[in-house]
Specification:
The complex is a heterodimer of chains A (186) and B (178). Chain A has 186 residues and is mainly alpha-helical. Chain A has helices spanning 2-8, 15-33, 37-53, 64-83, 93-107, 116-125, 129-139, 145-152, 156-185. Classes of the chains: A mainly alpha (186), B mainly alpha (178).
């Protein structure tokens, strides 16, 4: 709150502290929605510019990160609409087709080399953006279920169910595509 | 042991839901003790618990992606072009919102009062209309022709112009401040 107060009082340079602190979180969430790192950087930059311009509206009733991730989510959705990219819904079968395609290219030469962390990351990429975002917010964004509900505009109970199902789908992906590698690592 | 707990929700999904709640630390104390007992005594629950715990631990290890090294600099260069916008509360005047609300309510009330005033209640009972009011007997031609109606309409127009003037002057002031 001290940094925000300083920025609001005209100390623009202090905003870089907030950017440094949250850029990885914002960039990771953005990457759950957009396909390329270039697009993710552009969208993340847009998120921080929007957050700066709207900073006077941040009242401190929620965490700054919760407020920032709400902006991130809406900015990603706006970007996808503009680009007319396909957003996979929760039960969209094409998600699994994408996963199959990813798998076929990956399995032969890349996965063997990857660590457990990278393997989980690859499995997350096979999920729908909604599932991937909710998992990222819960595990890496330091957000509670109530805060995630605020960010994605759903009821906390619906978020809880979605998180359970997303992790279930992730587990299925890991078992289906990386079972051999998992065995090697454990 | 609470048998309802074992049966709900359904089957494998129910088991997973209970175990995830336990792993996330959102189970009640009663649920926690039941799950601990189940995990200790039931091989199926134990296997599923270890499977989910493994996923949970793997997810905790996931690292965040990092943008390019120039990212912060790019953002700071970009925001140098902008000013922080005034808080929404400062330019959304609640009096204007109330004024707009009163404007529409006055209009609706005016039309309703006039329409009700035009109904000949003495002949309403004879009507075959399901509303109990013979709509064909309402004199619509006089609706926009009476002094009362003209008065209400004029009041609304003046109120509308007043609100528009307040809105434009506020906007002008904001632009000057910026």
């Amino acid at each position: 709150m001290d940094i925000i107060a300083r920025v609001l009082n005209g100390d623009k340079q202090s905003y870089s502290i907030l950017v440094e602190r949250y850029q990885n979180f914002v960039f990771t969430i953005t990457l759950r929605y957009v396909k390329t790192r270039e697009d993710a950087e552009e969208v993340s930059q847009d998120v921080f510019v929007k957050a700066y311009r709207s900073l006077a509206d941040f009242k401190g009733t929620a965490k700054f990160s919760t407020w920032l991730y709400t902006i991130t989510t809406t900015t990603c959705i706006t970007f996808l609409r503009k680009k007319r990219l396909e957003v996979h819904s929760l039960d969209n079968e094409s998600v699994f087709e994408v996963a199959d395609n990813v798998d076929s290219g990956m399995r032969a030469n890349q996965i063997e080399q990857k660590s457990k962390v990278n393997m989980v990351n690859e499995a997350i990429k096979m999920l729908s953006p909604d599932d991937a975002q909710i998992i990222t917010l819960f595990y890496k964004g330091e957000q509670t279920l109530d805060e995630i509900a605020l960010i994605v505009g759903k009821e906390p109970n619906a978020v809880k169910v979605q998180l359970h199902r997303a992790r279930g789908r992730l587990k299925d992906k890991m078992q289906k595509y990386f079972s051999e590698e998992v065995k090697d690592i454990y | 042991m609470n048998t309802d707990f074992l049966n709900t929700p359904t089957g494998d999904e129910g088991m997973e839901t209970r175990l995830w709640e336990y792993i996330d630390g959102i189970s009640t104390n009663e649920e926690k003790s039941i799950i601990e007992k189940l995990v200790a005594e039931n091989a199926e629950w134990r296997a599923k618990y270890h499977q989910l715990l493994e996923v949970h631990q793997s997810l905790n290890l996931v690292e965040l992606e990092e943008p390019s090294l120039r990212f912060t600099k790019n953002v700071m260069e970009e925001i140098a072009k902008y000013q922080i916008a005034p808080a929404t509360k400062t330019y959304i005047n609640s009096k204007i919102i109330w004024g707009i609300g009163i404007f529409f309510l006055t209009m609706i009330a005016g039309f309703l009062i006039y329409a009700i005033g035009q109904i000949d209640w003495t002949v309403a009972g004879d009507s075959k209309s399901t509303l109990g009011v013979d709509l064909s007997k309402v004199d619509y031609s006089q609706m926009f022709n009476s002094n009362l109606m003209n008065g209400v309409m004029m009041l609304n127009v003046v109120l509308g112009l007043f609100l528009l003037d307040r809105y434009l002057s506020n906007k002008n002031k904001r632009l000057k401040d910026a």
